[in-house]
Design a protein that fits this description.
Blueprint (H helix, E strand, L loop, with lengths): L7 E4 L2 E4 L1 E3 L2 E8 L22 E3 L20 H4 L11 E6 L7 E7 L17 H5 L3 E5 L4 H5 L9 H16 L5 E11 L1 H10 L10 E5 L9 H15 L5 H5 L3 H6 L1 H4 L40 E7 L12 H4 L2 H11 L3 H11 L5 H29 L3 E6 L5 H4 L9 H4 L24 H15 L14 E4 L4
Parallel strand pairs: 2-5, 7-8, 7-9, 9-10, 10-11, 11-12, 12-13
Antiparallel strand pairs: 1-2, 3-4, 4-6, 6-8
Length: about 475
């Protein structure tokens, strides 16, 4: 392809060159905010100053500072991407569009997961080709992670990573028409930490008018840290860095140090007199709120927003199977986990045991973990949204069991993503250590799941009945054992 044939789009900040391929046009690493360097890492995102000439949008963006993540035998690189690729301008979006032609197409803005400390738009799983093929403009977002993104600091606004996503949505509102998208038909979607951020946006007063629909995939409406919990993390981070817990003191510290000290924050006990640890010790970062998003939907735009929300049936398996701990878990381990995440651990374990009478201790532990991390907070948000929005809530449960790791991975956290993006046949997701395992996936399942997301982004209806608290319909996607 000659250089001249590459598409160029004029945006308010300047012109961007992309590439054209079989599924449409692709523009990468477009900044939606100024580079977060020095003291700006702890400030609200500022508008990008713009550029002259034509910006190269054919190469991937740098990524937010982040640690490497290891999931034992399971190859999670399609999910986490390449890790930290240093560069100042990483507050960027990638855009996949059928054509930057002024067409008014539905827009899907996707916020990646990774425990608030890892992930980026460069992850192979977020390939938007199928969305573009089906007439949707897909925008994927990088945001500040870890200490710059979410550590609560005196002199800095809270939830800076969330403010980044808000800024990206503002950028989309102002700019997406140039890429063939309809700024009045935007769906904000996210998975895992990204889904928890989407849930927080539903309860954020300043988010009104930026999106019409929302998708919460394996997130939690009750995943926020209380201010007291956040202060514990801040104190531990300041101690590990040997500095004061203020934005001014942290501004002088390089990003490398913030990544280096993350292991020192692992294992913090975040239980307080009023709250359990909503992330079960798996991450020391989350959104920080005095009231959980699911209990504060009336404060934000939620009542006017269509919501698609759900979880996988064996979410907890991702944190136990690759590490080999599903098989070695004891009853004591189950109770120890329940004690971390439940005010009444014995009753919680008994309820799970009654629901799963044949479960091994490992399966019980996975169930307790999945419910604490995602299930309970998803149910609470679905209920709360259905009560205020009037027929705009749709719920799903994803149950296809991956055959990875000797057939044991199951319907774990992240397994639905290849189906949503309609890339479940990619060879790099298969084999014993690939996310989907050695077996081919069922015919048509990816097409059906993807079509539901496309339909929801277009019209707010994924293809099944709305969730009503009196008649709670949950659509089953994939086989549930």
């Amino acid at each position: 392809m000659t250089h001249n044939a590459d598409p160029v789009v004029e945006t308010p900040a300047g012109a961007v060159r992309g590439v054209r391929d079989d599924s449409g046009e692709f523009y990468r690493a477009i900044p939606y905010a100024a580079a977060p360097i020095g003291a700006r890492r702890f400030a609200p995102p500022e508008p990008h100053p713009g550029w002259s000439g034509v910006r190269d949008g054919t190469r991937p963006s740098p990524t937010a500072p982040q640690p490497a993540r290891d999931f034992g035998r399971l190859d999670m690189t399609p999910y986490f991407g390449p890790g930290w690729i240093p560069g100042e301008e990483y507050l960027t979006v990638d855009i996949r569009t059928p054509a930057a032609d002024g067409g008014k197409r539905p827009v899907l803005v996707f916020v990646h997961g990774g425990g608030f400390v890892t992930g980026s738009t460069r992850a192979a799983l977020y390939d938007g080709s199928a969305f573009a093929r089906d007439g949707i403009v897909l925008v994927t977002v990088n945001y500040r992670l870890g200490i710059p993104g979410f550590l609560d600091l005196e002199g800095a606004p809270a939830n800076r990573g969330l403010l980044d996503v808000l800024a990206a949505l503002g950028w989309v509102r102002a700019t997406v028409a140039a890429f063939g998208g309809d700024p009045d038909n935007v769906t904000i979607s996210g998975q895992s930490a990204g889904a928890t951020l989407v849930g927080a946006l539903l309860a954020t007063p300043g988010a009104g008018g930026l999106f019409r629909r929302a998708i919460v995939q394996s997130g939690s409406g009750t995943g926020a840290f209380t201010p007291e919990q956040a202060r514990r993390v801040t104190a531990a981070a300041a101690a590990a860095l040997g500095t004061e817990p203020t934005a001014e003191a942290f501004a002088a510290i390089p990003d490398e140090r913030f990544v280096e000290i993350l292991p020192a924050l692992a294992g913090l006990d975040l239980r307080t007199s009023t709250a359990t640890d909503p992330l079960a010790g798996l991450s020391q970062f989350s959104v920080v709120r005095a009231v959980q998003p699911a209990d504060a939907l009336a404060d934000g735009p939620a009542r006017d927003v269509d919501l698609l929300i759900g979880t996988n049936t064996e979410e907890g398996h991702l944190y136990l199977v690759p590490q080999g701990t599903l098989a070695t878990t004891t009853e004591a381990d189950v109770l120890a986990l329940a004690t971390r995440v439940h005010p009444d651990p014995e009753t919680a374990v008994a309820a799970h045991r009654a629901a799963l009478p044949d479960a091994t201790p490992g399966e019980l532990r996975s169930a307790v973990l999945g419910e604490a991390l995602f299930g309970a907070g998803t149910a609470r948000m679905a209920q709360a949204h259905a009560q205020i929005s009037g027929g705009r809530t749709h719920m799903y449960s994803f149950g296809y069991r991956s055959t990875a790791l000797d057939g044991r991975l199951g319907a774990a956290h992240t397994v639905e993503l290849p189906f949503v993006f309609d890339i479940a046949d990619k060879p790099w997701l298969h084999g014993d250590t690939g996310l989907l395992g050695p077996d081919p996936v069922p015919d048509g399942l990816a097409a059906r799941v993807h079509a539901a997301w496309v339909s929801f982004a277009r019209t707010g209806a994924p293809g099944w009945a709305a969730y009503d608290p009196r008649r709670p319909v949950t659509k089953t996607l994939g086989t549930v054992r």
